[in-house]
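User: Can you fold this complex?
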Amino acid sequence: MTVALRVNGEDVRIDVTDRTLLIHALRDHLRLTGAHMGCDTSQCGACTVLVDGVAVKSCAMLAGQADGCEVVTIEGLARDGALHPMQAAFAEHHGLQCGFCTPGMIMLGIDLVRRRGAADEATVRSELAGNLCRCTGYQNIVKAIAAGARDMAGAA
Amino acid sequence: MYDLAYVRPGGLAEATALLEADENATALAGGQTLLPVLRARLASPSRLVDVARLAELKGMALDGDRVVIGAAETHAAVSQSPVVAGAIPALGRLAGGIGDPQVRNRGTLGGAIANNDPAACYPSAALALDAVIRTTRREIAAADFFTDLFSTALEPGELVTAVMFPRCAQAAYVKFPNPASRFALIGVFAARTAAGMRIAVTGAGAGVFRWREAELRIDAGGGVADLDDLALPEDAFTSDLHGSADYRMHLARVMTGRAIAAVDA
Ligand SMILES: Cc1cc2nc3c(=O)[nH]c(=O)nc-3n(C[C@H](O)[C@H](O)[C@H](O)COP(=O)(O)OP(=O)(O)OC[C@H]3O[C@@H](n4cnc5c(N)ncnc54)[C@H](O)[C@@H]3O)c2cc1C
Ligand code: FES
Ligand code: FES
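Assistant: Here's the predicted assembly.
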């Protein structure tokens, strides 16, 4: 089947099988390998992208279900070489070690700001229920998202 | 995932026709349960009929003393709805506590009800509030809808179109989440209704049920402290790697106490 998407601001049409997951369409067909596949059970959140502005696990969505939608991945955040405030906050606060979970954490962080604005630490922790990190122990991820949220709220 | 066909019909009649024409076709809504199941090759439908965008399955509105919520409304939409918050605040909070933000952005009320996972949240609210499930063929009382583990009164090809919840200001859902999955290890929905106190327990293992002894004790003027010695239906509780039946029974008492306290707070 042919699926039409707007990915990181560009209109694309891709030929996929009916059972192709959105994560595979992004990684294998469009070569956007920032979103990662970290589990078989839709629990880790490493595959999180924005579909029509809201965070979804792209391993739990068929490419066909996203037909006609706007998709933003981690590759679509930086502008003219300048990091998105949420990306910059992760760098500033050392919110990553191996980096595998980071694209999903950042996309979720952006969704969180859309819904909750500049959230406090307890809110950030509960909102991270669907994003697992095997390295950091979360302390600096929580700091980074809280700081990124403040920067985004300030910039808006 | 085994090979399959994906179709997105433009209307409810077309969706129903597709499902009725092929007994191996399955409805796909948010996909938050079905797609992980398919990825694990635990099912092999011939065709997925996408109902998530159907206008006929959308909408949240008051109808007399009931809130009618379309089957394709997401957990996120229900949790943010002023209509739901005004009529049954506990239901909005329940939806806002399902899984995680990404799951709530995709998962739907209809999918959760039709799936009837023994650890799911919504079935407890439907049972406690005497909700009515509207389908493409009929209306089914919640008490008749949830039949067994992962099974419901739905017939092949029949779709949930909406769930009608009687208004209830005095209700609370308290969940002890499994820390890994966020599903209920035990969840209790308590509601003061015109017919008395209602207490529905999910997560016990053998499917959602009403704890009638506790309802009667509260209706007779008992308090939370009077629940400790009350019998629980033992065959409703099972043991698995997440917890023993005994542990779940203990949690059911504690969560019931907390839910009743929250109703009266
Ligand atoms: C990480 C994770 C955590 C979760 N945590 C929780 C939790 O805490 N509590 C909880 O209750 N749930 C939880 N869930 C499950 C979640 O709520 C699902 O969204 C829900 O169970 C299924 O809804 P869906 O729209 O995604 O349905 P789908 O996955 O699309 O479908 C599920 C089943 O319902 C059928 N179906 C769908 N729509 C209809 C309809 N309108 N009529 C008839 N049949 C239909 C499908 O054919 C399929 O058999 C979790 C899921 C995940 C992945
Ligand atoms: S790969 Fe999607 S949640 Fe783990
Ligand atoms: S930084 Fe390694 S998984 Fe999070």
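The first strand of chain A starts at residue 2 and ends at 7. The pocket of FE2/S2 (inorganic) cluster (ligand 2) is lined by residues A 37-39, 42-47, 57, 59 (CB under 6 Å).
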